[in-house]
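JOB MANIFEST
job_type = single_chain_structure
chain_count = 1
residues = 138
[input]
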Amino acid sequence: MTENTNPGDNRAKPSQSEATTEVVASAPEVSSTEITEKNQKDLTQLVYILQAISLAVGLTAIAGLILNYLKRDEVKGTYLEAHFRWQIKTFWYALGGVILGWLLAIVLVGFLILAATGLWYIYRIVKGWLALNDGKEP
């Protein structure tokens, strides 16, 4: 400990390393379950981000889908499982809508299907992301 320079104060001032030790010792403990849940929530949010970016760069949705399938077992039994199902269904139904829209573009109705699919895709991303931020199922 270093000496306090204030003449009226007889208490010893703690050194920098002792003060740091006190701060570290008083930090709240975080369980591995809380870390895992936060990581899973971050992963779910990443997939929503990848889906949103796919509106400009379509391949990112495929990366999100792969993450969903690879990590699906880790979120079983949590509210995040519903988000994974939501994200997987969003991808496959949107892909079906895009394929149908392109096939029917010859008769012009396909452009309406493509527009509807795009709006529906955005709705699903926004609704799911908001529910995730609220800690709820979509």
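[summary]
The two ends are 56 Å apart (CA to CA).
The first helix runs from residue 16 to 25.
exit_status = 0
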